C-alpha cells in the first residue's frame, strides 16, 4: 500500500476530491491530512471522512518535526492541495520527485510568491487572457517552479468575474488532480 499525505491550508475541496477518489483504491491510502492552519476547513473535512489529521506550525515544519511525523507514519508521497507555505529542503530531499502541487493557472503564467487562490484568478481576470487552466507539477524549494506533469486549459473569454474563472478552474482541478496523482503514484 502506498501511503499518501495531503497538505492543505484552506477549504480543502481538492483534498476532499482526493479522499473520495482513493477511498476504494487497493494500492493507495490517503493516510493523513496536515495543515498549518488549525481552523482550516480541510481538517474538519478530513475528520468527517475518517482520515487522520495533523496541525503543525511553521516552526514545526522547519525544525524537522513535520518530516519526523511523516516518516513515523510511513508516508511515501505528498500531495499539496492549496498549501500556502514553501516546502522546506528536508522534505524535498526526503521525498524527491514524490511531492506534487496543484496550481490554478497555466504555469509559468500567474505563478510565484503571493500567487494563490483568488489572487491568481483576479490577476488572470485583470489581464487580457482568454484562457486559463490548471497545472500539476513536481515541487521544488521555489514556488511553482518544478517540472510540469500535466496542464489543461479552459476558455474564459465569456467569464465576467474572477469568481466565474475560479469556478471553471476548480471543476478541472477536482476532475484531474486525483486521476493524475493516481497515474504518477502508480507509474
Ligand atoms: C486551489 O484552486 C488550488 O489550485 C490553489 O488553491 C485552491 C485551494 O482550493 N492552490 C494554489 O493557489 C497554490 N499556489 P481548495 O482548498 O478548495 O482545494
Write the SSE topology.
Elements: E1 2-7, H1 13-22, E2 28-35, H2 41-48, E3 52-55, H3 58-62, H4 65-72, E4 77-80, H5 89-94, E5 99-103, H6 117-126, E6 131-138, E7 148-155, H7 162-186
Parallel strand pairs: 1-2, 1-4, 2-3, 4-5
Antiparallel strand pairs: 5-6, 6-7
Helix pairs in contact: 1-7, 6-7
Bound molecules: glycinamide ribonucleotide (GAR).
The site of glycinamide ribonucleotide has 16 residues, from helix 1, strand 5, helix 6 and helix 7.
Explain how this protein is built.
With 187 residues, the protein is α/β, with parallel strands linked by helices. It has one domain: Rossmann fold. Helices cover 39% and strands 23% of the residues. It has seven helices and seven strands. Strands 3-2-1-4-5-6-7 form a seven-stranded mixed beta sheet, with helices on one face. α6 packs across α7. The longest helix is centred in the last third of the chain and has 25 residues. It is globular, with a radius of gyration of 16 Å. The two termini are 14 Å apart. 36% of the residues are buried. The mean pLDDT is 96. The protein binds glycinamide ribonucleotide. The site of glycinamide ribonucleotide (GAR) has 16 residues, from α1, β5, α6 and α7.
- State the domain count: 1
Give me the oligomer status: single chain
What is the CATH superfamily classification?
Answer: Formyl transferase, N-terminal domain
Radius of gyration: 16 Å
CATH topology: Rossmann fold
| Helical percentage | 25-40%
Strand order of the largest sheet: 3-2-1-4-5-6-7
Provide tags for this entry.
Rossmann fold; 187 residues; 7 helices; binds glycinamide ribonucleotide; globular; alpha/beta; 7 strands; 39% helix; single chain; seven-stranded mixed sheet
Amino acid at each position: 500500500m502506498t501511503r499518501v499525505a495531503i497538505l492543505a491550508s484552506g477549504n480543502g475541496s481538492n483534498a476532499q476530491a482526493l479522499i473520495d477518489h482513493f477511498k476504494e483504491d487497493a494500492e493507495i491510502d490517503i493516510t493523513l491530512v496536515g495543515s498549518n492552519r488549525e481552523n482550516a476547513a480541510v481538517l474538519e473535512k478530513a475528520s468527517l471522512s475518517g482520515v487522520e489529521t495533523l496541525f503543525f506550525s511553521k516552526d514545526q515544519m522547519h525544525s524537522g518535526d513535520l518530516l519526523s511525523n511523516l516518516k513515523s507514519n510511513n508516508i511515501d508521497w505528498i500531495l499539496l492541495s492549496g498549501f500556502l507555505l514553501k516546502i522546506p529542503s528536508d522534505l524535498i530531499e526526503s521525498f524527491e520527485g514524490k511531492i506534487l502541487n496543484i496550481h490554478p493557472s497555466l504555469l509559468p503564467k500567474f505563478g510565484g510568491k503571493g500567487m494563490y487562490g483568488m489572487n491568481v484568478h483576479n490577476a488572470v481576470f485583470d489581464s487580457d487572457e482568454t484562457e486559463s487552466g490548471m497545472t500539476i507539477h513536481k515541487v521544488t524549494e521555489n514556488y511553482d517552479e518544478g517540472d510540469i506533469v500535466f496542464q489543461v486549459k479552459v476558455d474564459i473569454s465569456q467569464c465576467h468575474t474572477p469568481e466565474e474563472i475560479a469556478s471553471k478552474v476548480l471543476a478541472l482541478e477536482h476532475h484531474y488532480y486525483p486521476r493524475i496523482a493516481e497515474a504518477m503514484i502508480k507509474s
